[in-house]
Amino acid sequence: MLPNKVEICGVNTAKLPMLTSKQIRGMLERFRDGEEGVREDLIRGNLRLVLSVIQRFNNRGEYVDDLFQVGCIGLMKAIDNFDLGQNVKFSTYAVPMIIGEIRRYLRDNNPIRVSRSLRDIAYKSLQVRDQLVSKNGKEPTVAEIAAVLNLKREEVVYALDAIQDPISLFEPIYHDGGDPIFVMDQISDERSEDGSWLESIAIREALDRLSQRERMILTLRFFQGKTQMEVAEEIGISQAQVSRLEKAALRHMKRHV
Predict the structure, then answer these.
(1) Could you read off the pLDDT of 106-128 as tens digits, one per residue?
(2) Which side of the chain, N or C, has fewer Cβ within a 10 Å radius?
(3) Is the separation of the CB atoms in 71 and 43 below 8 Å?
């Protein structure tokens, strides 16, 4: 059994060759001269680049074989279009090509479609954000980004939200060897919690036990947000009486809630 043997698309990654920059450049020159078979050798000799890139996308829920094949397309485009006249390493040119190909694949296969105009706003916003961080040394606000782009703040927020990758409620976020904790375990809808529902019933029943005047004072004070002075004027008593009745009513309610 071979150590560290991992097969992707039938390729044993443990046996992939490692080429030096000088070897790659020599092979590219031979490829440009029309030598047959060199392109295939170049592809195989640079598959480790594809492997290193697809590791960045491991959390997208895509099959590794699919990402590997798409990455190979980016590698082949890099081989076909690399300019030997430029004083850059092949890997420096190839990695962005591979990443771009994988991102296009993920975008086109995303179940949530985002319009090109929204994507453009989002990517421009990210560029402006990086520029402002470099210039000011701190994270800019959405309003500052919108001002640079001459857009409404809401447009920037909507565009940035649109390009966020969706996450499954069953995505594991922690695992200590026992049962994993999923995203859905960390969120809750307080509007539907049994505790809130029961508490609401208890408060309603406690209010029913108060006198009509006490019930009116608490309703005006805590459900309508009025001050004690406003309540006093509305029901025709002094502010001191409102304060006394309010405290007595709350004491009565605490016995029943």
Answers:
(1) 777 765 566 677 778 888 888 88
(2) N
(3) no
